[in-house]
Design brief:
Elements (H helix, E strand, L loop, with lengths): L1 H7 L2 H16 L15 H19 L2 H4 L5 H12 L7 H7 L4 H12 L3 H19 L4 H7 L5 H12 L3 H7 L1
């Protein structure tokens, strides 16, 4: 049964199981759409591909973050968050992916990571957005969408609140 099975499994096996589950089976690449019309310039297409590479790398570079934590549920939650920054992330979806109760995940996240769940998601989205703004010429609308925001205006509000400067002002200083 489950109790005897968990006593049988070593911590390494549990870690390996979560690693396989989230990085090989559940994690899906961010969705990118390139217009097939001739109106899209080659420069913009290259920028979109560069942005796609940055987003993909940001999602897969979470390995070093995951290794800091002992708890396999926190590791699974952080892996899921980094792999799905462009999706709607809430406590329910992440707790389901990490196989843990939502209230317990919230408490455990604060204890292990040091900040609350929503603040962590906001900080990771803002870091990704800042990297995209600095390294690409992608539109703010595109960056907002691929950082998980439904509207560019809400993204701009969050960005200004987090960094103290509007994303458009970041672009104008470059």
């Amino acid at each position: 049964t489950l109790a005897t099975l968990s006593e049988f499994m070593s911590p390494f096996f549990l870690f390996f199981f979560f690693y396989l589950l989230f990085f090989l089976m559940i994690r899906r690449p961010p969705r990118f759409t390139l217009s097939s019309s001739s109106a899209a310039s080659d420069v913009y297409k290259r920028q979109v591909l560069i942005g796609a590479d940055i987003i993909r790398a940001y999602g897969s570079d979470s390995n070093y973050l995951i290794e800091k934590y002992e708890n396999p549920h926190i590791k699974a939650a952080i892996a899921y968050i980094h792999g799905h920054l462009n999706d709607t992330l809430n406590l329910d979806t992440v707790s389901t992916a990490a196989f843990i109760d939502r209230v317990y995940l919230c408490q455990l996240f604060k204890k292990e990571v040091g900040i609350n769940f929503n603040s962590y998601i906001l900080s990771q989205r803002m870091k990704l957005a800042d990297k995209l703004l600095a390294e690409t010429a992608l539109s703010i609308e595109y960056i907002a969408e691929h950082c998980g925001y439904k509207t560019p205006s809400y993204f701009s509000t969050c960005y200004k609140k987090y960094y103290g400067i509007k994303p458009s002002d970041v672009r104008s200083t470059q």
